[in-house]
Design goal:
The protein is mostly helical. The chain is about 75% helix and about 0% strand. The protein has one domain.
């Protein structure tokens, strides 16, 4: 076996045969859990205490990209656990795609900030769960995801839960927010869900050609640099950087120290959220990543009620139950499907998987070795891994 093949097999962190796979999966879901809940609550905390700049709220979502350098350089320079030098293997196509997706994320961040400034956390979280609808549709179009009764049932339930919130929005409207602003926030949040749903299958398609977690983080750095550039341009034209100083000193009602602590905490929490999201899509698939995000949004709903004492009337209860029902139906469908695949493999004496199944366990380092040895035009070759 060549050194190149050995290196590839060492870094095939998608494969369940790799001893790093499960710890990496759990670590990323932990990042996603902490980041999703804390970033949602901290963003609302900023607006609740007289923070008003949506560009500031947008900028902090991506400005912490230097933190992603840590998981990129530490394994190579400190632990010597990988032979791949950081930031190598980028093709012009991958670089251009990363920049494009980064600008798209920048717009998504702005829409989220716009919606979060007008809506309660619980309502915003329930609306964002609608991204799973768009995610399924776009996954079918972009990555040829199969439609099953379970994932279709999940989509229908989540759609109905969002419709219920729209019909009963007058009962949830904050006293200091006009009806027009409330619906602007509603539409902005739906738009953020749509863009994020587009991001997931696009990255799922790209990650099919990536077998190294470090490169996923490198691509994430490029994306967030692009998003930060977009947000910084908006900050400059809107006076956002000057506004940050004024807000911290004069406007924020918790004082300057708490203001900057809120800003820094937002920066860190959003990086954990995006890092976890990218890792989950890379290690599983785009639809599974979307499902995991939706499950955590239910925790955001609870967080908004507990931390900010938001109203949690009958409509929100029904919407939350429908979201949970949809999520559980999808998880159960995955369980049944994976169990059937396992039973089939046991009957076949450990045979292969269906090539359309891109969930956990569908990557085989032996097959990957054959690809590398048989053709220099493989995706791994083009990526320089």
């Amino acid at each position: 076996m060549s050194n190149t093949t050995q290196t590839i097999n060492e870094q095939d962190q998608k494969s369940v045969t790799n001893k790093r796979y499960l710890p990496l999966l759990l670590l990323n879901y932990g990042f996603l859990f902490i980041g999703s809940l804390s970033s949602s609550l901290l963003s609302k905390y900023y607006f609740n205490h007289k923070g008003s700049s949506r560009w500031v709220s947008t900028w902090v979502q991506s400005a912490g990209f230097p933190l992603l350098i840590i998981p990129i350089v530490v394994p190579y320079y400190l632990f010597k656990s990988t032979q791949r030098k950081p930031f190598t293997g980028f093709t012009p196509k991958i670089l251009a795609l990363s920049i494009f997706v980064g600008f798209m994320l920048g717009v998504n961040n702005l829409l989220f900030s716009w919606g979060n400034s007008y809506l309660p956390v619980s309502t915003s979280s329930l609306l964002l769960s609608s991204q799973l609808v768009f995610n399924l549709i776009l996954s079918v179009i972009i990555v040829k995801q199969k439609i099953t009764f379970m994932n279709l049932n999940c989509v229908i339930l989540l759609t109905l839960s969002s419709v219920l919130l729209a019909l009963e929005s007058s009962n949830d409207q904050p006293h200091d927010v006009t009806k027009t602003k409330y619906f602007i926030g509603y539409l902005a949040t739906i738009g953020a869900g749509l863009l994020f749903a587009l991001y997931l299958p696009i990255m799922g398609m790209v990650y099919k050609k990536v077998y190294c977690y470090a490169m996923v983080m490198e691509m994430q750095v490029v994306m967030e640099v692009a998003a930060t550039v977009l947000a910084s341009i908006g900050m400059v034209f809107d006076g956002g950087f000057t506004e940050m100083k004024r807000e911290g000193y004069q406007v924020f009602d918790k004082g300057e120290k708490v203001y900057w602590a809120t800003v820094v905490s937002n920066v860190v929490s959003w990086q954990l959220c995006f890092m976890g999201t990218a890792g989950m899509v890379f290690l599983t698939c785009s639809l599974t990543g979307g499902i995991c995000m939706t499950a955590l949004l239910m925790m955001n709903v609870v967080g908004g009620v507990v931390v900010y004492k938001e109203e949690f009337g009958g409509v929100k209860v029904v919407s939350t139950v429908m979201c949970g029902w949809g999520f559980c139906s999808y998880v159960y469908g995955m369980y049944v499907k994976n169990k059937m695949m396992k039973d089939r493999d046991d009957d076949d004496g450990g045979g292969g998987h269906d090539s359309d199944d891109k969930n956990v366990g569908s990557y085989n380092p032996i097959e990957m070795t054959q690809i590398v040895n048989s053709s220099s035009s493989s995706p791994l070759h083009h990526l320089g891994v």
